[in-house]
Amino acid sequence: MEKVVIIGGGIIGLSSAYYLLKEGYDVTLIDKKDFKDGASQVNAGLIVPSHIVPLSAPGMIEKGIKWMFDSSSPFYLKPRLNLPLMKWGYRFYRSATKEHVSKCVPILRDFNVFSKELYQSLASELEFQLHGKGLLMLYRDAETEKEEIETAHLANKSGVKAEILSAQEVHNLQGGLIEDIRGGVYFPGDAHLNPSQVIQSLYQAILKLGGRVVSKETVQKIEWDSKGIRRVEGKSGAFYKADKFLFATGNWLPELTKQLGFSPLMQAGKGYSITKNQMEDKLQIPCILADESVAMTPIGDQMRVAGTMEINGANERISKKRVQGICSAVEKYFPNYKMELPSSENIQWGFRPCTPDGLPYLGKLKSHQNVFISAGHAMMGMSLGPASGKLLAELISGKELSLSIDAFNPNRFD
């Protein structure tokens, strides 16, 4: 039985472990935390076939520059003399074209649809629920309305159903909204779930399938030769040997794989989330407040509010101004709901690993034949987790792939 070591215990690593165990591999999953922390646990829980436009799209440069000077805006990039950041920024600029978007639309559509189908199967096997209520994009600003309607037309043209709604139709779907909302776009094919339930269900399933899980272990040293990695060493002093190694480490990837001579372009985009009791006008459908890029998701008797993309290095500081921006956005749309700034211990956050072209790194490393990469999913890690895990399991097993992964080549920027 071939052994696989997976480094990284978020939704990508857990999904990969699950599908590799199903293929009959001996799997060891290593995570530097305890599977209860990280971005996979605190995200909005949205499964989004509607998200067909990559982060690097026309207009994002101008919008990002404008937002940089607003301390409560949904985006912040700290300018600094940092070579990896400058290389990443240059590639982002080169990718922010209509041609790039056109190329990415069918790729992201198929990737997300495949992942949703896998979630449907997993929900019948494991202990979590997938709620197929769709996603509602809401807007107050005329310019945002124009952008969202253009995206809706692009989605429909690409086979992703989108319904453009008037203000009255939006009010009929969701109570408590401001009177002068301009309207919305409804994506009926989207879904949502409780991220914590999914993480814990996969964790338990991995144990039942015979997987080995090592928590609170940081891989520090990689031993390799011309044939690939021989073993990795953890901070504890333990060694982990395997036939194949998968790095699903999120924004930690460049720091770790530089030992292999692989320095992928990636920036950590910090996002925040707050979990609150439901509003009086209960949130019926997950929605994104498009003017401020804030997501709201009903999770049982609570709702999760999440937003911001803060590219400021992998630091653990909480920006109260950006969290206040999230709270203020909710009140702009739901004026009867007072969302006070929570204390620091009630603010959750995680890093979204962002590539410069908006596509993840997924595949075999060119320089090391037994090394595989799955990272850089940005804001869609939860949505794309099962598909990424399934495709990596197929690749490692030598099976025919369910989808082409050529566009995700980890070495594409070499």
UniProtKB/TrEMBL annotation:
<dbReference type="InterPro" id="IPR006076">
    <property type="entry name" value="FAD-dep_OxRdtase"/>
</dbReference>
<dbReference type="InterPro" id="IPR036188">
    <property type="entry name" value="FAD/NAD-bd_sf"/>
</dbReference>
<feature type="domain" description="FAD dependent oxidoreductase">
    <location>
        <begin position="3"/>
        <end position="395"/>
    </location>
</feature>
<protein>
    <submittedName>
        <fullName>D-amino-acid dehydrogenase</fullName>
    </submittedName>
</protein>
<dbReference type="GO" id="GO:0005737">
    <property type="term" value="C:cytoplasm"/>
</dbReference>
<dbReference type="Pfam" id="PF01266">
    <property type="entry name" value="DAO"/>
</dbReference>
